Amino acid sequence: MKAVLLRQLGGPEQLSIEDLALPEPSPDQVRVRLHASALNRRDVWITLGQYPGIRLPCSMGSDGAGVVDQLGPDAPADLLGQEVVIYPAYDWGNDPRFPGPTFRVLGMPDPGCFAEYLCVPAGHVFAKPTHLNWEQAAAIPLAGLTAWRALMTQAAAQPGETVLVTGIGGGVATFAMKWAVALGARVFVTSGDEAKLEQARQMGASGGVNYRAEDWDKQLAKLTGGVDVVIDGTGGPAFKGCFSVLKPAGRLVVYGATAGNPPGLDMVRLFFRQARIIGSTMGSPEEFAAMLRFVEAHHVEPAIDRVFPLAQVVAAHQRLLAAEQLGKIILQHG
């Protein structure tokens, strides 16, 4: 089979497509013939050596969708031939509140979805929402689940609430916006790109502000009257602004810190306004199943930035590295 491998660090240019032996499922696994996969920022970080625990050579890719074409002897027989989306991790554990000590994301060190075939536990494949094509289905797993847990589990967002999603354009932020709009929330976004703000409005956001403006938080507060929920993956200096726009009893959920640690926090405002700051990462298989049911029930369609053939995997990663996208970058496996 064809698979994308990283044998040395140095950026996306080090990725190559190689011929590997066809994998065989172990007793409790199924093999999936992948039709499409999707990129995450994690994949670029691995190529640059900016991710913990890198083991080379490795096969990356956490997002994938395809057809189950072979079963291990202990896998349910009715999975054969099913169109599925793959849960993007291993070993969440038994506590729904947080992942266990052996939790890891699919794709490095385990084989990932940038390949024609992949073997995964039978319990990690879920029915593809019927209204989605392969590219849309493959877009969902890692970013969609991260956004789902942040918004639905940790923030417990409700219809009619006002939600701020920072850094629109990235996969998690775009999914958080999509989930919140479908939920019936009033959604606002931030971006440093006016074109992305306009695209977000076209996707259902009620409005947005450019975070490059010094008073962006004041603009947002005037626009919204305050927000109930903030979904933030940036941190850094903008975190203070995110916190300042919270209504009393507001929830600020943090799923990343691409801009580093925030420089300070108004502790008095935190306790007087009964605000909550909540960490969030990934999600459990049960949350993954709930998310896919929501997608099916609300006919949500993921935002796709661009589709590349698998042979152009380097160009796909270069686009992600340049942060030009709004929505997911997809690899089409043919």
Short description:
The chain has 334 residues and is an alpha/beta fold.
> What level of helicity do the residues show?
25-40%
Termini Cα gap: 13 Å
Number of domains: 2
Low-confidence stretches are none
Which descriptors would you attach to this protein?
alpha/beta; Quinone Oxidoreductase, Chain A, domain 1; Rossmann fold; 2 domains; 7-stranded mixed sheet
What can you tell me about this protein's structure?
The protein is of the alpha/beta class and 334 residues long. The protein has two domains: 2-140 and 302-332, Alpha-Beta Complex (Quinone Oxidoreductase, Chain A, domain 1); 145-279, Rossmann fold. The protein has ten helices and 17 strands. The strands form four sheets. Strands 3, 4, 5, 8, 9, 16 and 17 form a seven-stranded mixed beta sheet that branches. A six-stranded parallel beta sheet has the order 12-11-10-13-14-15, with helices on both faces. Strands 1-2 form a two-stranded antiparallel sheet. A hairpin with an 8-residue loop joins strand 1 (2-6) and strand 2 (15-19). The radius of gyration is 20 Å and the shape is globular.
